[in-house]
Amino acid sequence: MIKLNSKQLRLGESKEKKLEVKKQDIYIILENVLDTYNVGAIFRLADAVSAKKVFLCGGTSSPPNPRIKKSSINTTEWVEWEYCETASEAVSRLKREAERVKVVAIEQSKKSVPYDKFDYSLPICLVVGNETYGVLKKTLEVVDSVVELPMYGVNISLNVMVSLGIVLYHVLSKTRGKTFG
Question: Tens digits of per-residue pLDDT, 51-64?
């Protein structure tokens, strides 16, 4: 097995390389995600899909943080991010900044639809919540839609980063031919 260090995992670390990467119309909101390793992993995921921005809200820790830095493999330096007091504030701000953005929470809810039956288009913002309590009810009231992943085993939920990853790559599979460069 070959183990790569952080420099080997990147195309390059120059500002020019950062400017060359085309950002997709994908935004991510983290609401009270408390595990700093989840936060770091989500930054890495945001970089993997070339998301435009990550909003860190409520009790979500933000960089600089050594645990976030370690699990993100320094992608906090490449992915644009912003802190907002609440996810509702982030949704409002994003709707003013990004024309036609569809805000979709990943959550188990009476109004949710299966993630693979939803009609995805860009621009899109995916909202994930606290590892134990999920997305807050007041946030679910301001999103456009709610999707959820089916659970067939004993557990009733997945890790927040895993859930986000599944839905993000499904978004890419449904929109790539339409907007990806």
Answer: 999 999 999 999 99
Order of strands, sheet of 124-128, starting from the edge strand that comes earlier in the sequence: 81-84, 51-57, 24-31, 124-128, 102-106, 145-148, 113-114
Give phi and psi for 171, each to the nearest 5: -55, -45
Residue with tokens 């004993």: 154
* C-alpha span between 79 and 60 (Å, rounded): 16
Q: Give a yes or no: residue 83 inside a domain.
A: yes
Range of the domain at 85: 21-148+158-176
Domain-located, residue 11: no
Residue 15 makes CB contacts below 8 A (sequence gap 6+) with none
Statement: the pTM of the whole predicted model exceeds 0.70? yes
